[in-house]
Amino acid sequence: SQISFFRNGVCQGVAFTDLNGGRYYPAASMYTLPNQPNCVVRFNFGPDFDCFPQDFGGCPVPSPMIDAPYHGFDGEATENGENAAENGQSENKT
């Protein structure tokens, strides 16, 4: 197992290998000094990619995030988001 990063459809290389099983979610962390301009990051999870990666090194082509089912705070998949956590908090319905 591995995670690779792409920029404008060009692979920037393998960043992590031999990963633990489970799900990994994309994220970004940015930091600037007070005298520097703001940071900007943009994710494009599809389905309309500006620069679709062409070479996956024999790995299956990933599906757009929009096709992934939503998993609420309790980990159960939902179709309508009824178990969705809002602002990192979920109501216990027991």
TrEMBL record:
InterPro entries: ASH2 (IPR037353), B30.2/SPRY_sf (IPR043136), ConA-like_dom_sf (IPR013320). GO terms for cellular component: Set1C/COMPASS complex. Signal peptide: none annotated. One of its GO terms (molecular function) is transcription cis-regulatory region binding. This is SPRY domain-containing protein. Residues 71-94 are annotated as: Disordered. Residues 78-88 have a biased composition (Low complexity).
